[in-house]
Amino acid sequence: MNMSVRGAIAATLLAGTALAATPAFADEADAPAEITISGNVALTTDYRFRGVSLSGGDPAIQGGITVTHETGLYVGTWSSSIRGGDYYGEQELDLFGGWSGEVTPGLTLDAGLLIYVYPGNEPRDLVTGDKIHANYWEPYASLSGDIGPVSAKIGVAYAWDQKSLGNQDNLYLYSNLDVAVPNTPVTVSAHVGYTDGVLAPEYLNGLNDQTGWDWSIGASATVYGPLSVGVSYIGVTGPSVNGFTDDTVVGTLTASF
Fold it and tell me: N or C: which end of the chain has fewer CB within 10 A?
């Protein structure tokens, strides 16, 4: 297996939401803050990113924070425990920034740039002795809106060829659908993604095919205050490797603030 890319990358792309402008005659106390801060912490039974486990099929602790300006500009960070061996270490730290807002009534654009950082990796070049960094960059963009009771999103993420990816690139296309069940706290979600590049699930399993699909279907619900729970069935194309690319059910407990 290609160990230099097996750990892959992950990220939860936390998007800021543009705040509505306040009329000039509004009371000062009612005016929205120029800057808002949001975040979450979570415990998941398996850290699956684009269908591939980055925690070796084991539970992971995750959390992130996003700072959003009323213009729609945002910056943030997100982190998760992983099992990435010597190349990726035991932690993934994502740093990102971008803009999110309505480009036309009912249609929201979110675009930005994200870097995946692995601060715990220890490998060194056998010739020079220099530390090898697994970090790399990935721009992203998505469009989202409502179609009746369905919230829909289509998106793209592209990592150009970089040394940490073996001087190869990776394209990821995806679509998400979310439906809130009336008169309940439950939301049903579906996802499908397509990879063309060095991070394709088949290629990570040692095959020559650099294309592949991932999918999931699940549900989430607010259970108490900021606490929510979710469960999803997740799968990918290609060989089924236990704790890596096998189909699985993932449960997550999240506290948001």
Answer: C
Encode pLDDT of 193-232 as tens digits.
999 999 999 999 999 999 999 999 999 999 999 999 999 9
Residue with tokens 């294309």, as numbered in its chain: 211
Q: What is the pLDDT of residue 128?
A: 79
φ, ψ at 56 (rounded to 5°): 65, 25
Residue 144 amino acid letter = S
Other Cβ atoms within 10 Å of 111 Cβ, number: 16
| Tokens linked to 153 | 């999103």
Beta strands in the chain, from DSSP E residues, in sequence order: 35-44, 48-49, 52-53, 60-69, 73-81, 91-104, 107-117, 136-147, 150-162, 168-180, 186-197, 211-224, 227-236, 248-256
Question: Using the 8-state DSSP alphabet, how is residue 131 labeled?
Answer: B
| Residue reference for tokens 């803009």 | 99
Q: Which domains does the chain have, with CATH numbers?
A: 3-256 (2.40.160.40)
Q: What count of other Cβ atoms lies within 10 Å of the Cβ of residue 11?
A: 22
- The whole-angstrom separation of Cα 26 and Cα 68 is 22
Whether the Cβ atoms of residue 87 and residue 165 lie closer than 8 Å to each other: no
Q: How confident is the model at residue 3 (pLDDT cuts 50, 70, 90)?
A: very low
What is the spatial distance between Cα 134 and Cα 198, in angstroms, rounded to a whole number?
A: 14
